[in-house]
Amino acid sequence: MVWCISIPASTANLGPGFDSIGIALDKYLELEVELGFDWKIINLSGNLPDVPNPLDHLIVQAAEKTAELHGFSLPPCTVRVKSEIPLARGMGSSASAIVAGIELANQIMELHLTAQDKLKVATLMEGHPDNAAASIYGGFTISSNAANGEINVFHANHIEASFVLFIPNFELKTTMARQVLPDSYSRQEAAQASAIANLLTAAFLSSAFEQVGTYMEQDLLHEPYRLDMIPQSKEIKIAAKQAGAYGTCISGAGPTLLSLVEKGTEQDFISKLKGQFPDYNLVEVPMNRTGIVVTIKDTENAH
């Protein structure tokens, strides 16, 4: 039996939705899993880490953690992996790997985990739920860690939003992007930041994309500190607006930038900016609406 597991990439924050808003993207981490005699990870594409010892691999660690939390010991597997999600670019590559491992354990051990169960394990490993929530549920998610250990999630997948990503040819580790943030904010800053995030959410859920674009560019919590770490980011924001984007923000912790554009104008938008930013690859990426998808191939009856 072969389990085929597909996990979407994600973007987080959308500007002011810091560490809470996530959106699933139409780029995928794909696994083919079979029971084996020892753990084997076989990379079938680029965008994947070279991890000589499979037990050090994030997918395997997430799978074993999931089994252990539910009182099981996971049998070893052979895992063939393909990825369209570039590493350390702000597209949720680590969250996708963790979610993939959780789903692997869920399938192999027949744990019957709910989406909420999966998100709890992912948040335990990631520290915050925004990217993982989007990869698990698909669509647009808002999530937060409640004081009682529960994770509150809002999920909507009716929104017809279109994005163009500016994916750079260089990495930015999330740990580096976190280090530049202040330890605290004034009450006035916090209140203003909260108001902007509320406006962004209301506009996004109403498909008022022009307003969304305005609020995407008004974040106070992380973008003012991170933009200087991303070469040409300010120029990209200006050029994107001139080319017709509603708004542009950092995707996750960066260094990828994300423009919200009118549906149907993606290729026109990309062609207007062609050649202006040679260190960036411009890619049209729709929202993903499905979240995790699992199919099972019965190899015994295959001819």
UniProtKB/TrEMBL annotation:
Residues 58-139 form the GHMP kinase N-terminal domain. Its EC number is 2.7.1.39. ATP binds at P86, L87, A88, R89, G90, M91, G92, S93, S94, A95, S96. Residues 202-278 form the GHMP kinase C-terminal domain. It comes from the Bacteria. It holds the Pfam family GHMP_kinases_N. It is an enzyme of class 2 (transferase). One of its GO terms (cellular component) is cytoplasm. It is found in: Cytoplasm. PROSITE patterns: GHMP_KINASES_ATP. It catalyses: L-homoserine + ATP = O-phospho-L-homoserine + ADP + H(+). Belongs to the GHMP kinase family. Homoserine kinase subfamily. This is Homoserine kinase. It comes from Psychrobacillus psychrotolerans. The gene is thrB.
